[in-house]
């Protein structure tokens, strides 16, 4: 169980980083406009 939770948490963090990196550029463009 512990190993599965660790894997899920790491995957969640990676997905969160990808989502943030994808959203940040859009927010920056909106700020410039």
Automatic annotation (TrEMBL):
Q: Which InterPro entries match?
A: PRCD (IPR027937)
Q: Which domain of life is it from?
A: Eukaryota
Q: Name one GO cellular component term.
A: photoreceptor outer segment membrane
Q: Pfam families per the record?
A: Rod_cone_degen
User: What is the protein's given name?
Assistant: Uncharacterized protein
Please give the organism.
Answer: Cyprinus carpio carpio
């Amino acid at each position: 169980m512990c190993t599965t939770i660790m894997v899920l948490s790491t995957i969640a963090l990676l997905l969160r980083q990808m989502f943030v990196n994808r959203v940040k550029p859009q927010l920056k463009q909106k700020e410039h406009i």
